[in-house]
Amino acid sequence: MSGLANVQFWAFVGVVAGIYTIFALGLQLQFGFTGLLNFGHVAFMAIGAYTMAILVVKVEWPLWLSALVAIAVSMLFGLIIGLPTVRLRADYLAITTIAFGEIIRFIAVNQQTLTGGPQGTINLTGAGRASSYNREWLDFQGWAQDQLEVILGDHATRDLTMLVLVWIVAVVLIVLLQFMVHSPWGRVLRSVREDEDATSALGKNVFSYKLQALAVGAAIGAIAGLFFAFQFSFFSPQDFDPLTTFFAYVIVLLGGTAKNWGVPVGALIFAFIFAGTRFLDFWPLSELTSADRAFLRLIVVGLILIGLMAFRPQGIFGKKEEMVLE
Amino acid sequence: MNELLQLIANGLVTGSIIAIAAIGLSLVYGILKIVNFAHGEYLVFGAYMALVVNVTWGQSLVLGALFAMIMTALLGIALEFGLWRPIRRRGAGIVSLLIVSIGLALVLRNSILLWQGGAPRRYDVDVFQVYELGPIRLSLSQIVVIVVASVVIVGIGLLLARTTLGKAMRALSDSRDLASVSGIDTDRITAYTWIVGSALAGLGGVLQGLVQNAFEPNMGFRLLLLIFAAVILGGVGSAYGALVGGLVLGLMMEVSTWSALPAGGVDSVYKPVVAFVVLILVLIFRPQGIFGRARTV
Amino acid sequence: MSVPERNGTILELSDVVKHFGGVAAVAGAELDVRRGSITALIGPNGAGKTTLFNIVSGFYKPERGVISFEGERIDRKPPHAIAQRGLVRTFQITKALTKMSVLENMMLAAPHQPGEQLWRLVFTPRSARAREREVHEKAHELLKLVRLDRLAGDYAGTLSGGQRKLLEFGRALMRDPTMIMLDEPMAGVNPSLGLELLDHMKRLQDERGTTFLLIEHDMEVVMNVSERVIVMNEGRVISAGPPDEVRRDQAVIDAYLGTGRGAGEPSAPAEETPPSEGDTA
User: Fold this and answer.
1) C183 and C217: one domain?
2) Of B215, C93, C105, C246, which shows the fewest CB atoms inside 10 Å?
């Protein structure tokens, strides 16, 4: 089994798309609905994944508790970074948050005893003793696989199980966010995005709403980090490069800012560009090495970003009338 | 004490490269409201242009550096006409332009990767001989950087202070509308700003490639936030500010590792973090920069 | 400094100062607004009227001076806190939320919506829904009043300048304010509708005791509707009193003369006056 017909491979692509969907949903809330130009979103993913792994491996807490605490810690960081910065204008907020994300990554690289250092969480208990945080997750995944087998029989593989689990969470989050942004709370966020002065003149505390959006988005980013950690049995600081945040922007802008259902579509397109294109092996692409193809893919991603901003800033599903991009 | 002097010397080397690279970013930020996240790639482009001359064609690095400046200036002006101006005409605001610059950064960086690969490259020069100047030890490459940087910094200072072009650039950076009312040909000055800023970025890339011995296409993005920190420190849009900001930042990063400081100074792996923290603090407490005047608008 | 609880005063400013780049936009303004009155704030171009509105509503921090609303100091309070106290303003250059529907603009303004708090939204969604129904009904009522009910579903961005003024007025009323500050509410508004709005202001004043402070350039409106006129010039209050008194005040006449405009009957001194402004005459 190879190529486009390989179910396992597409299941993997689907899992990645699901994780990116969750990750980008957090950004959708912050940037799409509230207008916060958060360029350090990847830090929340990193904080979620690392906090969970460290608590499981070093403190030996149960996975579920560790995961919940990880989400809370990420929210807390959202508040800490947000308190002094959400009042800043968009470009300054972008620069401060990207710097914040890089600080987190530098700490992950250099505080080896805490994080396992550049080699990643495999070294959490020190070099030479491979450590693992996802035993409980694998047990759960195995249980879920058993349930799935009842329906799908032999098709219910590990990857497919993960696919189902990730997308259940993604869809639940989309529905939840959809409810939230169309609630009175979300109405205030959208109003903050468009005009802070008008919003505060109507008695709404703009600062508080921005903080809430940042913190809730941080929690969602942390959930993406948890799944990232579950999917790959270890991870390292370079997984949390600023590039990952930019990918989330590509996804949000592709689907359309302030369109929750655009996020999974954007993520699927994005995942296809990343994974699916390896099957496009006709000439001249067949001449390229796999490294070259990786570069080419990123060139395509860059061109998509430029093209979107130039020709269709509202994305696939966005409405021009609702576009707020300074 | 000797350690401090050495750190100051190192700081001047780092700082002058950041300063040279920061001028273009600051002017473009101030004049065109482009927060150019692709600016680091302009440096990388310059570094590789010089590599072509120096290694592929076997010419001197001096020639390579000049070629790099010319080519990066051409890149800058081509992107102004081919990308930035059309997008500006479509009424793109600061956030849209910022996102475009991220797309551009991805395109440029990965084009260079596609062309040259990701393996570290080095110039074909022998500048690693170390000189002892009193208590300070500097490699020839570091000395070259300091000399070149001093010449460039003085040159740019004169350009900005004395020439009509320089004055027009500063006026434009202060207020685009005002400058356009006072009869300055804003389009022409904008083009010159890109030329000067890009050429300097290209030169900065060559110098950085030289001092860090081996470089690869990700060098630009690693420097970008440091360059931003210099721009912000000096006040967005101020070319002088960017120069001073770069030098101050370089010195701060190096001196922060001084072992006589409390807790033995900052661990040297955290030098960039010092810059990031400075960046964040300045934006929070003094967004007009440490030298800039507060503006009401 | 003591906070005087003078009977009948709802808003009181003393010695309020604000500079911009060395220029005093407001230079020690003193004024008071009586509870339940309709008061007009007039003055030549650049007198500092809009700046004063921005200071009172919390958008600018005054460098000096005391502002009290209903006996409480508000000069250090942020805009949203002032609005929550019942002092609501509109903007000279309208701030309609153009990417939201007209109805959403109205509903956003409503106070006491538990659904605007995240935890209440999640844990007591019913109270949020119940309040939302009330707010919806009220928004429709007020939209009818400002003749925008047919446009409820449209994006506010499609409204004309005059319609946006009406939307802002309606939006301010959504908050059930005790006092409203209107910055040129009639500019660009269809004259007959403008008269209806004035009627409605008077009705709110009668029935609920709502206080109005309005910046207005149309002297006809000012003289007809307001029982008190406050005149500003060069950042100071130079005269205050009943319309008839104020129009005979030599200081006021001089102030308007100083701007090169007609004296005696100060006729429509302009501050970014739209061309349709004289239509109500």
Assistant:
1) yes
2) C93
Task: Look up the CATH number of the domain holding residue C191.
Answer: 3.40.50.300
Does this complex have an ipTM over 0.85?
Answer: yes
- Measured between beta carbons, which residues in chain A are less than 8 angstroms from residue C78? 200, 205
**Between C216 and A130, where is the model more confident?**
C216
Higher pLDDT, A265 or B164: A265
Q: How far does B162 lie from chain A, in Å, by closest CA?
A: 32
Alpha-carbon distances of A158 from A12, A16, A132, A272, B249, rounded to whole Å: 10, 14, 18, 21, 51
Tell whether C239 and C264 lie within a shared domain: yes
- Greater pLDDT, B65 or B168: B65
Q: How close A151 comes to chain B (CA, Å)?
A: 44
- Asked if C100's CB is within 8 angstroms of A187's CB, the reply is yes
Q: Which of B95, B117, B284 sits opposite A325 (nearest CB)?
A: B95
**Which pLDDT belongs to residue C271?**
42
By Cβ distance, the residue of A197, A205, A321 closest to C95 is A197
Cβ neighbours of B276 in A, within 8 Å? 99-100, 102-103, 106
Answer yes or no: is pLDDT of A284 > 80: no
CB contacts < 8 A, A to B, total 125
Whether residue C199 is found in the same domain as residue C260 = yes
Domain identity same for C188 and C268 = yes
- The rounded mean pLDDT for chain A is 91
In what helix (H) or strand (E) does residue A52 lie, and over which residues does it extend? helix A41-57
> Looking at the structure, do residues C53 and C88 belong to the same domain, yes or no?
yes
* Beta pairing partners, C181: C89, C213
Q: Is C4 inside any structural domain?
A: no
- Domain locations in chain A? 3-240
What domains does chain B contain, in order, with CATH numbers?
A: 2-285 (1.10.3470)
The domain total for chain C is 2
Question: Which residue range(s) make up the domain with C246?
Answer: 9-96+177-280
- What is the structure's pLDDT at C55? 97
Q: Evaluate whether B234 touches B245 at the Cβ level (below 8 Å).
A: yes
Is residue C104 located within the same domain as residue C198? no
Q: Number of C-alpha atoms within 13 angstroms, CB side, residue A262?
A: 23
Are residues C119 and C154 both part of a single domain? yes
Mean pLDDT of chain C: 87
The answer to whether residues C210 and C112 belong to one domain is no
**Among chain A residues, CA nearest to B35:** A91
Residue C4 pLDDT > 50, yes or no?
no
pLDDT tens for residues B101-157?
999 999 999 999 999 999 999 999 987 788 988 889 999 999 999 999 999 989 988
Q: Decide if C213 contacts C205 (C-beta within 8 A).
A: no
Structure tokens at A239: 């997984």
Looking at chain B, list the stretches that DSSP marks H as alpha helix, in order from N- to C-terminal side: 2-32, 39-51, 61-79, 85-89, 94-116, 140-162, 164-174, 176-181, 186-211, 219-234, 239-255, 271-285
